[in-house]
Amino acid sequence: MKKLDTSENQVKTVFLGLGSNLGSRIMNIENAKLLLANKNIKIIKCSNYYETYSWPNKNFPKYLNIIIKIRTKLNLHNLFILIKSIEKKLGRKSMPVNYPRTCDIDIIDYNKKCMSIEIGKYKLSVPHPRIKNRNFVLIPLFEISRNWIHPKSNENISKLILKINLADLRSIKLT
Q1: 32, 105 Cβ separation under 8 angstroms
Q2: pTM, two decimal places
C-alpha cells in the first residue's frame, strides 16, 4: 500500500485578495467566492469591501477589493491554477498589466511560507511581493487577522500599516 505524503494532504491557511473594477464589481467578487467554495475551499473570514483608485492610471474605473482567509488542501501550484481558471470563468481577458479586469485574485499569504514557483508564463511569489505597499491589502487583512506577521520580513501588520498611504482608501459597508 502506498503511503500518502502527509504534508501534501494537510490543510493550509491562505489569505487571498479579490478585486474587480469592471462590470458588477460586487457580483464578480461574490461569484469568485462562490466558485472557490464550490471547489472545497473553506472560507473562514471575509473583510469588508474597500474601494480604491486604479493604479497607476486613476482614469480607469475604481477597484473594489476584499481579503478572505481560506483553508485548503491544495498545494500552491494547484491553488494558483484554480484561481486562474476562476478569473477566466468570470470574464478576465489577457490584457496589459494593471488594466481593468472583471476579477483579480492574488495569493497574499500561503500558510506563512516564503516561496517562489514558475507556472507557465507566471512567476508566483508568496507572500505577495508588493503587499507592503498596498493599502487595499493591508487594511482588509488587518480587519480579519490583526496579529498577522509578514512571513518574510517578520513585521507585524500594525507596523506595516503605519508605513502606507491611506488617503485613497474607502471602506464600503454593505447592508
Answers
A1: yes
A2: 0.92
